[in-house]
């Protein structure tokens, strides 16, 4: 063993760890989540080994990437003495569902501003919002898109008038606070990979509101993962996310007095897999979801992970990751979104077999 190299590495890690001092946090997620090799899916690729970081297992009803972010958003809310959480998203938002359940678990009132109309019979995520006791307001999509921030502040003021201190969490908890969740995930990934004996060439995640990717970018630099963090957009476009994430990285640096040169960090977004829009999955995505369920017993969703995983397989086939030996896909959860789109899957021929 090369002891001088080891002690050098240790002192570098200590230096890095000293710089990473986490802000207020509550414990919500079941951590660490497993890192699994997808043996049967990797075999026909004839190249990289595909691994999956099971952040769908951060907790049952609370599963998914939002739980990691909410540990810090709610930590900050409690540090500010708030008794209410306000947030927003689509009617089937995973983030809103996770906030509703996390709020209930922490004894906090939760108010959700949802884009769209009430469902006749609330299902999947929306059903869980109600079950967990969240108050729900519906906002017409045009108004939501144009005035979301103002609506949330108005709501916060209404709570203040009735004697409650409300904390506003932005869509997806994707801001300089929530992104800490994925800095923590990188600390975990570093240990996962050391145990498994490899350095990932790539870590890939879906990007929907940007906080997961922003946290991974920072965390991989702070913990020196030696990997390329990349993503596949399932909403908006690459330009939107590069601008948003740049801004969030700068806010993080300023708010927490960090010295990392955040402007030098690459923000990689692979386009081409959005299909006909956010939340809409084409037959190729549904086919990938089915294939992964049957080959590995892993359940993906049509809005985020199914699209991103389909993109990953397609890009491997096209040669984008040529020469890569290990690629980690971050499974960000979303199973309730799959249940909301059950009717898109057709198994008629199989029933008769
Ligand atoms: C299941 C799931 N995966 C991925 C994402 C995308 O993560 P982010 O919003 O941090 O970009 C979201 C939320 O937007 C999600 O609910």
What does this structure look like?
The structure is a single chain. 46% of the residues lie in helices and 14% in strands. The radius of gyration is 20 Å and the shape is globular. The protein is an alpha/beta fold and 353 residues long. The protein has 13 helices and nine strands. It folds into two domains: 11-62 and 176-348, 3-Layer(aba) Sandwich (Rossmann fold), CATH 3.40.50; 66-173, 3-Layer(aba) Sandwich (Rossmann fold). The longest helix has 21 residues, at 141-161. The structure holds pyridoxal-5'-phosphate (PLP). The site of pyridoxal-5'-phosphate has 19 residues, from helix 4, strand 7 and helix 8.
Question: How are the secondary structure elements laid out?
Answer:
Elements: H1 3-19, E1 35-37, H2 39-42, E2 49-54, H3 65-79, E3 84-90, H4 94-106, E4 109-115, H5 124-131, E5 135-139, H6 141-161, E6 166-168, H7 180-196, E7 202-207, H8 211-222, E8 228-233, H9 238-255, H10 283-296, H11 305-318, E9 326-331, H12 335-340, H13 348-351
Parallel strand pairs: 2-9, 3-4, 3-6, 4-5, 7-8, 7-9
Antiparallel strand pairs: 1-2
Bound molecules: pyridoxal-5'-phosphate.
What would the keywords be for this entry?
353 residues, 2 domains, 9 strands, disordered N terminus, binds pyridoxal-5'-phosphate
């Amino acid at each position: 063993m090369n002891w001088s190299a080891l002690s050098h590495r240790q002192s570098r890690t200590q230096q890095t760890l000293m710089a990473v001092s986490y802000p207020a946090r509550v414990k919500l997620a079941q951590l660490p989540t497993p890192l699994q090799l997808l043996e049967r899916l990797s075999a026909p690729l004839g190249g990289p080994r595909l691994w999956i970081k099971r952040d769908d297992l951060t907790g049952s009803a609370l599963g998914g990437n939002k739980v990691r972010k909410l540990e810090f958003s709610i930590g900050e809310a409690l540090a500010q003495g708030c008794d209410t959480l306000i947030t927003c998203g689509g009617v089937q938002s995973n983030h809103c569902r996770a906030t509703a359940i996390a709020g209930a678990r922490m004894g906090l009132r939760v108010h959700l501003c949802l884009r769209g109309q009430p469902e006749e019979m609330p299902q999947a995520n929306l059903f869980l919002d109600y079950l967990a006791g969240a108050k729900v307001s519906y906002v017409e999509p045009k108004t939501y898109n144009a005035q979301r921030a103002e609506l949330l502040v108005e709501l916060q003021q209404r709570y203040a008038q009735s004697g409650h201190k409300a904390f506003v969490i932005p869509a997806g908890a994707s801001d300089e606070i929530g992104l800490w969740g994925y800095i923590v995930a990188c600390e975990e990934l570093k240990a996962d990979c050391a145990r498994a004996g490899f350095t990932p060439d790539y870590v890939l995640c879906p990007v929907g509101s940007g906080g997961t990717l922003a946290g991974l970018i920072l965390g991989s630099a702070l913990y020196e993962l030696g990997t390329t963090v990349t993503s596949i957009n399932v909403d908006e476009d690459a330009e939107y996310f590069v601008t948003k994430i740049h801004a969030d990285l700068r806010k993080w640096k300023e708010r927490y007095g960090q010295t990392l040169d955040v402007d030098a960090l690459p923000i990689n977004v692979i386009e081409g897999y959005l299909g006909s829009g956010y939340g809409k999955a084409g037959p190729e995505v549904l086919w990938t979801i089915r294939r992964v369920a049957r080959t590995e017993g892993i359940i993906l969703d049509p809005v985020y992970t199914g699209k991103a995983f389909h993109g990953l397989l397609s890009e491997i086939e096209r040669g984008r990751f040529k020469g890569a030996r290990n690629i980690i896909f971050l499974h960000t959860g979303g199973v309730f979104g799959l249940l909301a789109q059950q009717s898109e899957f057709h198994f008629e021929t199989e029933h008769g077999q």
